[in-house]
Structures are given as structure tokens and as C-alpha cells.
């Protein structure tokens, strides 16, 4: 079995297991039971929903972080996010390339978009936590200012 075939099988297995393991969430009220998705169309529908939910969460965390930053840091975040989005999209196309335009390629691309989007969300959450921490500690421990005022 070639490496490419093995890669496709592993990705498909992960996607198929995602429903029964509860990793495909938020599908209540739809006509597709993602835990029983078998066809490529059903899996694509479910994968798209999961990606949309991950993207919405990324946008929520990103907006929250931008409100915590100002000036140069905010501009840096905006530039890095634009660059990351371009990288994510191109990387997902590359990852799906193992299917060589087969019917499973869009599913592989969406799965990669979701994986990367969730990872970026966690990264932004970590930055947000640091921003919150620096805001709460800023100005509370300033021995230089105290020394200057006492002199």
C-alpha cells in the first residue's frame, strides 16, 4: 500500500470516527445524522458544519483579542491573522492534494481547514489569556516609579 493510500485511509477513518465519538457536534435539527454519515455528500455536509462552527469560534476569540490590544500589537495581530488565513487555506488545498481531485478531496480539505482553525483558536486563546494577565498586573508592581517618587 502506498503512503498516499495510507494517508487517505487514515484521514477517512478519522472523519468516519468523528461522528460516533461526538466530535461532530451541533448537527441537531438537520436532516443528516452525522454519527451515521456514510456517503461522501453526508460526510461533506457534516464536515462543513463542523468547520463553520470552528470558524465562528475563531472569529469570536479573534474579536475578543482585538478588543484587548491596541496600537502596534493590534496591527501586528491583524497582519498575522491575514497571513495565517492565507497559509491555512493553501495548506488545506495541499493536504487534500493526496486525493488528486478525487471525490474525497473536498472532504480532506475541509477536515484540514477545521483542524488548523481549531488549533489557531487555541493559540489566540493563549494570547488572550496573556493579554488579560498583563492588563491585570500592569502597574501593580512598579518599584521604579515608587523609588522615583520617594526621591
From TrEMBL:
Recorded source organism is Desulfobulbus oligotrophicus
The superkingdom listed in its UniProt entry is Bacteria
Write down a Pfam family by its short name: LprI
Domain Lysozyme inhibitor LprI-like N-terminal, first and last residues per copy: 35-124
List the InterPro entries: EF_Hand_1_Ca_BS (IPR018247), LprI-like_N (IPR009739)
Compositional bias (Basic and acidic residues): 141-151
State the name under which the record lists this protein: DUF1311 domain-containing protein
- Ranges for the region named Disordered are 128-151
